[in-house]
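ok so for the tutorial part 2 we go from a plain amino acid sequence to predicted structure tokens. step 1 is just haveing the sequence, like this:
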Amino acid sequence: MRSSGRPKTSPATCNDCFVLLDARLRGAVEAAVARGADPHDALRGLYISDEQALALAAEGGRSPAPPALTFAAERLGLGDVDGVVLALCAAPELDPRFGRLYAFLHDDVTRKLASPRLAADLLADESVSRSDVLARFSPGAPLARTGAIRMLSGEPATALADRQVKVADRLAAFLLGAADLADAAAGSALRHVRPDEDTGRDDATEQLRLLLAADTRLPLVACGPDAGAVLAAAARTPVVLLASRELERPDALADARLAAALEGGLLCIDG
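step 2 — the prediction. this is what the tokens look like for a chain of 271 residues:
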């Protein structure tokens, strides 16, 4: 049964994704506690009691989502529902309280990340169906396509909809305001070049600007020790440089693409 007073999923009626998420979590925790379990079960409340879960849920709604979350959703071109799903998946990275609540609702202390089923349980309402929420986790959907999230493989016996979903390290670091953490997790650093019109290479800059604007799928190759700086000046956007030797590392290209998207810049292979 759905309550008519339940806040709708679309941010069009909710100014802050975390406000919506906290409201849904409170309702879900209260419903889980009301359903109850065997009070004589020796394992009941071993890690987190009903009272603790209710207290954690009641703490919500006081801290808004960081502006970086809205900024990231805009840079990644996410729609309303995808933005809320991203907030749900990113929440444990930003506040451990969410991870403990997710674990309580999963009935498994080790599962502190979101899952497709949990997302559907929390977000589905009259404005968005369960199947629509679940579809946000498909490989071709914007969140996975942009590299913002990935579904962990988990145990073979774990149901597909119950597998945990991890926000990309690059995105988590961006939301935390500590981009260097992503480089540390990846084991290598990307080079970030900011646009500067004063490169001393006006002719080369203008030529590259024309080439970048050309309607072609051919790769653009720029040579020289200052190629990154000239490219950034020509594109008038930041340039993210990924060393070609890093292409052997799994997920290196996806990580660099995500970094470029978050910066609103170009991805270039260096070397």
